[in-house]
Design a protein that fits this description.
The chain has helices spanning 3-18, 27-44, 50-60, 104-110, 114-117, 123-134, 143-153, 166-174, 189-195, 207-222, and strands at 63-69, 78-85, 90-95, 138-140, 164-165, 177-178, 183-184. The chain is α/β, with parallel strands linked by helices and 226 residues long. It has two domains: 3-44; 49-226, Nucleotidyltransferase, domain 5 (2-Layer Sandwich), CATH 3.30.420. The strands form two sheets. It has a five-stranded mixed beta sheet, with helices on both faces. Helix 1 (3-18) packs across helix 2 (27-44), helix 3 packs antiparallel against helix 8 (166-174) and helix 8 (166-174) packs across helix 10. The relative contact order is 0.15.
């Protein structure tokens, strides 16, 4: 967020408020003006509304990606990946044999065990296919995580376009401002889907299910019913 731009917005808001004789420059009102300045600064970077962005993703038929992993840290690896397009067609849905064991804590979340992935392809066997699919443009919910986990799972120097984030898109659409972080509050995918009345027909907490939920949220934001 640009500090100088934020200050400019605040100064303009304060000048306008001070012109009102009823305005009291107390701490609550000043905080409120800073909040408005933060929101204005955030939106100054946006060239489209969430609805317009969601429709653009659908029109471009970007792919939706989700991964299940051995964990969240820098040593985590992919154990399942699914990719669908914006028509809902499944392009890839496979377990992946990681280079490390699947911890019980991870299995407790997604249900994937070492036994289930022992005969699955290794990442290096599907990497080319994944890169070819996401090269057309891709979206994920909490995209920074999926982007990082793809890089961590690879042993090669791979090159592909950066992702679009459906979590940020929903946060903007939902409109709940986080004054401390100066951005819209991020919500879990399951909460976004529930709020948008999205309920896929698949196994919860698996990659394909989460892809379908993400697509459902994007369609709902766009106002598209398929």
């Amino acid at each position: 967020m640009s500090t100088s731009q934020r200050d400019t917005f605040f100064t303009a808001l304060l000048t306008g408020a001070m012109a009102d004789p009823k305005f009291a420059p107390n701490s609550d009102n000043i905080r409120y003006l800073w909040r408005l300045a933060d929101i204005a600064t955030y939106h100054a970077r946006c060239s489209a509304t969430p609805e317009e962005t969601a429709r653009h993703w659908i029109q471009k038929n970007y792919v939706i990606v989700d991964t299940e992993t051995t964990g969240l840290g820098s040593d985590a690896r992919i154990v399942e990946i699914a990719i669908i397009d914006c028509t809902g067609s499944t392009l890839l849905n496979t377990l992946v044999k990681p280079a490390i064991p699947v911890p019980p804590a991870a299995t407790a979340i997604h249900g994937i065990t070492d036994e289930m992935v022992k005969d699955a392809p290794e990442w290096r066997e599907i990497e080319t296919e994944v890169i070819e699919l996401i090269d057309r443009g891709w979206v994920a919910y909490n995209a920074e995580f999926d982007d990082r986990i793809i890089l961590q799972s690879s042993t090669n120097d791979i090159d592909y376009p950066g992702p679009r984030c459906a979590m940020r898109l929903y946060a903007e659409h939902n409109g709940e401002w986080d004054a401390y972080r100066r951005k819209y509050k991020w919500k879990k995918l399951v909460d976004a889907a529930s709020a948008m009345n999205v309920s896929p027909d698949d196994t919860p907490h698996r990659a394909l299910f989460d892809c379908q939920m993400t697509l459902g949220v994007i369609r709902a934001i766009a106002g598209v019913i398929l």
